[in-house]
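User: Hey, quick favor. My workstation is busy. Could you predict this chain's structure for me?
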Amino acid sequence: MIKDNHKKFKELRTKYTFFVYEGFSITETKESIKVVYNFNLADQYTFHPTLEIFKGKYLRSNITDDEIRNFVFHIGMIELISYWKTACPPPNHC
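Assistant: No problem, here it is.
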């Protein structure tokens, strides 16, 4: 079984050579902040998970736009792990 998993892992890494966190968009309403993330797996698949954060319940009223963008970006970094695991592409050396 381990050999089969390793073989599958190697096949996926060969087929899907990169995974990119392309960014996110934020739409703000009176009640919430809606976020759409953009992930790209080797130009073959894209993923667009969404997140909605309700203001009154979870965000303080004096939060700045920079703080929101920083928070949203880091949530995306956490989210990307789930999508990266679909194919485990190798690290991209820039």
